[in-house]
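#lab-general

N.A. 3:47 PM
ok so I finally got the sequence cleaned up, no stray characters, all 131 residues accounted for. can someone with queue access submit it? mine expired

B.Y. 3:52 PM
send it over

N.A. 3:53 PM
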Amino acid sequence: MRLLETGFAQPGFAPTAGLSATTIRSMTSNSSREVLILGLTKAGKTFRPSDWAERLAGVMSQFRPGGPRPGSHLGYSPWCVPTSHHGARCVVVHRDLRDFEPMAWDFCINFARDNDLQVHEGKAAGERAKT
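B.Y. 4:20 PM
back already:
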């Protein structure tokens, strides 16, 4: 299931299937501040490896306000943060990453699409992740 622009999960609905990263980026609403990439496939299976969220956030650690600095690789970027949602690993990706480095944003979105992961978009994505 995916939850993108409608706000409701729809079984079997894959709005990003077969679309380019540029098209996906243009689909995201400008009012949406965060995207939650959930470690569950559309089929509801847990995505492996279990540390995928930390790996993705680690790769994105250099993309941060003010750019990379010495030692910045030792902490996560505030624009790509691993967390959990109801026991499932996930990553909250902030829209500022898209504005700062579109290729990094595309990498995250394509990672979710390529691995058939559920994507939840919206201002409340980060709030849902904290529960």
